[in-house]
């Protein structure tokens, strides 16, 4: 059966993405947030969704394991992928920020040590400002870096800011607005054009009216 394969980033973004797809008229009857399954199907519309880690979404799409995907803009900016970015879905909104101690703004005339999960975005940002940096690549709990003296500041995704606050940190500056994007494999955008175009048009309509239907997963 010729399914359209969609890769979604696991976690909160997957829930938001599935809400969008259900609002488009698709149905994944066995999906629930607590499920440990990673693949769900809409057999009537021949749609299959696969839940993967966020950084893997564009990898799946680029290599044809998925036809389209929904992933945060931060992932697309951090590493360049050979995919088409089709649509800003305006969900999963957050900011990429410079953060640190309130009373310890670095002297940017000197080299600054920055802890982050996003070394490429961070390097590009500070390079454009002609600020010298040593970038410490981290994989988790980035907010610990200035607390233990590993870095002067951090660059990270901030939603509510509660985690920063609980660890005695504040936002120094917002540098990027992040939201979920619809991406497509360059080959299957042609071979499955009509199917993908139907999804694009449906999603565009939902984005224009301000988001998915309320309680769509209830």
What can you tell me about this protein's structure?
The chain has 218 residues and is of the alpha/beta class. It has two domains: 4-93 and 179-209, 3-Layer(aba) Sandwich (D-Maltodextrin-Binding Protein, domain 2); 94-177, D-Maltodextrin-Binding Protein, domain 2 (3-Layer(aba) Sandwich), CATH 3.40.190. The chain has eight helices and eleven strands. The protein has helices at residues 12-23, 57-62, 73-78, 119-128, 144-147, 162-166, 188-191, 193-208, and strands at residues 4-9, 39-42, 47-52, 68-72, 83-88, 94-100, 112-116, 133-137, 153-158, 170-178, 180-185. Helix 4 links the parallel strand 7 (112-116) and strand 8. The longest helix is centred in the C-terminal third of the chain and has 16 residues, at 193-208. The relative contact order is 0.21. The mean pLDDT is 92.
Summary tags:
five-stranded mixed beta sheet; 218 residues; D-Maltodextrin-Binding Protein, domain 2; 2 domains; elongated; alpha/beta; six-stranded mixed beta sheet; single chain
- Fraction of residues in β-strands: 25-35%
Widest sheet: strand ordering: 2-3-1-4-11-5
Biggest sheet features? 6 strands, mixed
CATH architecture of the largest domain: 3-Layer(aba) Sandwich
Percentage of residues in helical conformation: 25-40%
Number of helices: 8
Structural class: alpha/beta
What is the N-to-C order of secondary-structure elements (H for helix, E for strand)?
A: EHEEHEHEEEHEHEHEEHH
Cα-to-Cα separation, first versus last residue: 30 Å
What is the tally of beta strands? 11
Q: Over all CA atoms, what is the radius of gyration?
A: 19 Å
Which segments are poorly predicted (pLDDT under 50) over 5 or more consecutive residues?
none
Domain unit count: 2
CATH level-4 homologous superfamily of the largest domain: Periplasmic binding protein-like II
Name the average pLDDT.
92
- What's the CATH class of the largest domain, please? Alpha Beta
Pathway: Amino-acid biosynthesis; L-histidine biosynthesis; L-histidine from 5-phospho-alpha-D-ribose 1-diphosphate: step 1/9
EC number: 2.4.2.17
Protein name: ATP phosphoribosyltransferase
Family: Belongs to the ATP phosphoribosyltransferase family. Short subfamily.
């Amino acid at each position: 059966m010729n399914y359209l394969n969609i890769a979604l980033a696991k976690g909160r973004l997957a829930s938001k993405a599935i809400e969008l797809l259900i609002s488009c008229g698709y149905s994944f009857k066995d999906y629930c947030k607590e499920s440990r399954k990673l693949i769900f199907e809409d057999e009537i519309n021949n749609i299959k969704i696969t839940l993967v880690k966020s950084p893997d979404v564009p990898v799946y799409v680029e290599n044809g394991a998925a036809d389209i995907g929904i992933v945060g803009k931060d992932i697309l900016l951090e590493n360049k992928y050979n995919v088409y970015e089709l649509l800003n879905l305006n969900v999963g909104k957050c900011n990429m920020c410079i953060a640190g101690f309130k009373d310890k703004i670095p002297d940017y005339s000197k080299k600054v040590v920055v802890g982050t999960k996003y070394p490429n975005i961070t390097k590009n940002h500070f390079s454009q400002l002609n600020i010298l940096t040593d970038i410490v690549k981290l994989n988790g709990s980035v907010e610990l870096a200035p607390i233990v003296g590993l870095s002067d500041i951090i660059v990270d995704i901030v939603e509510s800011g509660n985690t920063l606050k609980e660890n005695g940190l504040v936002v120094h500056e917002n540098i990027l607005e992040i939201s979920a994007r619809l991406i497509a494999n360059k080959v299957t955008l042609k071979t499955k054009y009509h199917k993908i175009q139907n999804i694009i048009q449906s999603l565009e309509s939902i984005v224009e009216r301000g988001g998915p239907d309320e309680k769509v997963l209830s």
